[in-house]
Amino acid sequence: MLIRDEAGLRLLRQAQEEALRARRHPPTEDFHTRKLSEVWARAAKSQAFRDIGAFSWDSFERLPLTPKDRLKQDPWSFAVGELAEAAKYYETTGTSGRVTPTPRHLEDIVWNTVSVAEAWRSVLSAEDRVAILLPSDIVPVADLIVGVCEYLGLPHTRMYPFATGISDWDRLSGLWSTLRPTTVFAAPGVLMQLTRLLAQRGTLPGLSACVDRLMLLGEVSTPALRTRLGTWWDATAYDVSYGSTETGTLAATCPAGSLHLLTHAHYFELTDGERVTPLPADGTGRLVVTPLNLHARPLLRLDTGDEVEVSSDRCDCATPGSTVVVRGRSGDGLRVRGVGLAIHDVEEIVYGLTTATGYLVEIDEAGTRARILLERAPGSDRADETAAVEAVRRASRDRLGLAWDGIAFLNALPSTTKSGGSQKSWKRTNVRVVESAR
Ligand SMILES: [Zn+2]
Asked: What is the pTM of this model?
């Protein structure tokens, strides 16, 4: 119950009008000038941006990019106001294990929730019942989904299976039979674990029958993984959003399954490492973002470190705004036997060519030896595994130029590959450095 007075209601209406207008017409330069000058003025109250002076396009374009590491190293210098002014306080744990404090003002929450909800409205239906398998404590992710469901008027239950003392897999399957969710929000790793468990128990066909949509977020999900999950559940699997805790949601899915940039909520630019240019209709580069509706921690020209490809004709749905595909994240690449390996490469092969429910890449410290372990799907026929191993070997060689030292199926992968949280890095969950990969 965040809205409790006239001012809150006005804020909600304003966010709603802006989001609805943006779905009909792309934002104009006047719109961006107004919104940028407002966030510029808010940012000037923080330690990090106290010397930026007054807003003009010229001063904006001369402002150096803000590296993501600078924000992570000193998050409080970007904060505006006292903690007592915040509506919520979250913390997130990055891949380095460092905790990032994340206060949110009412404005931060309302603007982001409405902008995402209006985008997802085109995917969800008014009859939906929603299961939210995301964590509620400390991190903001489940609160966003709950906010969207409240805004859209959809019945929903938080049912994160790792809330010790409250929820577990048994509780979840009991609750499932009653709620009969049509839409499931989950991180891919958690959904894969649920899939395995239900398949082992023989209850997957019964419990998946009500589900139309799998809404994946919190971790990178590749097309091959979404296809695989969609097949198991006989449902459509979406990569529902792209963004970060620091920036809010940058892009949201459309009914056709493309991520469209939310250009009314952010001012986007691309950089090739030297020059920074306004977002083109089509192009590639590292995404630079100025979120237009941040209040607790306004950010100007944040270098996301994400290599993206934007395109104006990739999707033929009616949603305005270029689509975005994240090609790579800084720090997420891996070198194995001299070959650069990205999550997309590996998962196209693992989930595209085998029925494995997970995988682990094991490399030695020098990166000279590597094997890949594949997790056997419950009830799968071991007689098929020789052919699957051969298919992985051949595809790795032909598509990636990589010869594995070993490819093997096993019954269950270590629990580190089953990320129970969100925003985990691929390298942390699916790559293990061992003394010898033999
Ligand atoms: Zn689309």
From this structure: 0.93
